[in-house]
Design a protein that fits this description.
heterodimer; A: alpha/beta; Rossmann fold; 7-stranded mixed beta sheet; two-stranded antiparallel sheet; 12 strands; 59% helix; 8% strand; B: mainly beta; SH3 type barrels; 6-stranded antiparallel beta sheet; 6 strands
Amino acid sequence: MSKQINVALIGNPNTGKTSVFNALTGLNQKVGNYPGITVEKKEGICKLPRGVKAHIIDLPGTYSLNASSLDENVVIELLLNKNDKDYPDVAVVVSDVENLKRNLLLYTQIKDLQIPTVLAINMSDRMSYKGIHLDIAYLERELKTKIALISTRKGKGIDQLKELITNYKELSTEPCVNASEIDKDYFNKLRTAFPNQLLYKLWLVITQDVNFGNVNRNEVDAINSFKTKSKTDLKRLQQKETIKRYQFINNTLKKGQTIDLKSAKDLRIKLDRILTHKVWGYLIFGFILLLIFQAIYDWSSVPMDFIDSTFASLSEWTKNVMPEGAFTNLLAEGIIPGLGGIVIFIPQIAFLFLFISVLEESGYMSRVVFLMDRIMRRFGLSGKSVVPLISGTACAIPAIMATRNIESWKERLITILVTPFTTCSARLPVYLIIIALVIPEGRFLGLSYQALTLMLLYLIGFGAAVGSAWILNKVLKIKSKTFFVVEMPNYKVPLFKNVALTVLEKTKSFVFGAGKIILAISIVLWFLASYGPGDDFNNAEEIVTTQFSSENLAQEELDQKIASHKLEHSFIGIAGHAIEPAIRPLGYDWKIGIAIVSSFAAREVFVGTLATIYSVGSDEEETIKNRMAGEVNPILGGPLFNFASGISLLLFYAFAMQCMSTLAIVKRETNSWKWPAYQLVIMSAFAYVVALIAYQLLK
Amino acid sequence: MKYTLADIKRGQLGVITDVSSVHIPLKLLEMGCLPGNAVELVQVAPFADPMYLNINGTHLAIRKETAIHILIDIADV
């Protein structure tokens, strides 16, 4: 049996921890969630020398073991729980050679937990450039560990790191800072009360605001013999601890590290002069945003058209090749169009995540946060809200999770509440198809009307987000400490491997996550559209044939009439007619009504639903767009999708809260059903009213 | 004359003398914002807020409302 060792990668943000993880595991990695919470869990397998296998877990980045967010809690939770199946046999602390001082703080804390720890000093390729010299032997002695100097960019030192991990048993588990000296009395009492527990572990449990699985905080509190410290006192002690650790680190680095400032060349200063400049900074940011939108609209339309027509022909082909029957129909009319509705997203999602991950990797995103903070604060948001609002154009779910690093609860809550207004990629197919149907072709100042409409819809989304943030800021009476700190990492050329893996991973999880819902709904819809109660549905052929017997219709036309009669009296038709009174003032018929209702599960279902409804009983190979263009308004005559109803639909989709997954995430992140319920009701009511006004004015 | 970090100008070099533990979160301390450490202003956003600082080699941005709780000595240039 081959032995597998557990390795935990730990490190500050921006140290290239994920690059190390990618270098060790390559494609042998999977991303999931920690049970019960939405923190991403990255794990992978790495083959070590001498046939040893390592299970590597990439823990969320943290500056210390004093957790201030859900992500950071995960790190402590694991390191304090020896019974966890992922509890590390060896920890690898990844640090950045340029920020060694700060990175070592976390390292000394991990050492105090007496876990065998390897120190991996990353970005060593920048040492000569920065004039840094390290006395490795001295540092290894003082820090009581083994050091691997690595460069994930140049692929150096990874073998040495693997070697050190394999020999983890030789590592010292002795701590290098004695934290208990900050208050000897207190720590002695602690030791007497819990003789069997590691002192530093107890200290961590006491000072954190959360309960940990294995050591219950209340249990610790219950023994009163030492619980003599108030919160402020504890905070002062933590401050003392931090100072003590830094003293040790400063002393160690004084001898172990020399920096020759003369040979240090700094590109970052020059870049920051421009990129965070009062004028140029904003212009450049605006230009980058334009580029992103251009990519999403323009560049991805080619593969999207291709996917659309491919699925239409696949559907047709299935019908021709497979034997006739309910299963073939389910496949050709339910599942394939449903799947097409998912696959069509891939190009856009990939482009968006490509840009977002390049912006993050390069260090530019922090500059945007810096530039935008003052402006965003006027609306009750934080500079850090920019990241969720931008990534909200891909999907609100990761965007809402990205709000976690906003320190102020009020700013964070407002960001969570308004993010769903940004135009996520799920709205895009709805927009694209309706724009193509109702907005005339033609150009204004060289820009096509259709592209302008799309641009306008994005602006409306952002406007609604910022505007409602402004209102929420006035309305919400939440007092929370506002404090804001953002690290400005050095600029880096993004590593292709990291970007590619992110794009691949995010696209995959989006497609499979949303895919499941869309597929399930398409199947259910198909059944509802293909079966119905009573005579009207089951004897449709007879009824229609008698009705039109005098008119001498061709067989083809008659079939068409039968199909639409059936659809109208199917389960879905009955449900659609039931809600029709509510949506008729908006210019929609019952089929659109069904699409809207089903897209409360997820917006992207809209096109898929219409595709399913329209393809039921239809024999011709046609794209969804052509089918929609052919629909006639049953009351007024004329095309159903005209300018008035089209604009009304666009506005409805711009504002309505139609995504169950987002609501679920909001519930998790705010820990209450109150906020998602508000979102659902207020956004949807607003959407209805705006759509109603638009249609009534335009019709 | 007592200065706070909010007073620092570009090109000046400051040394942190005291940090109000009530107003300053632990996270900022852990990032190196501790008495004795050198601090320098890298860039200011419009309206001088937030401030982009280099504290002890760590580059970070904080708001002015936080900076006023950090006392510094400013070295004469």
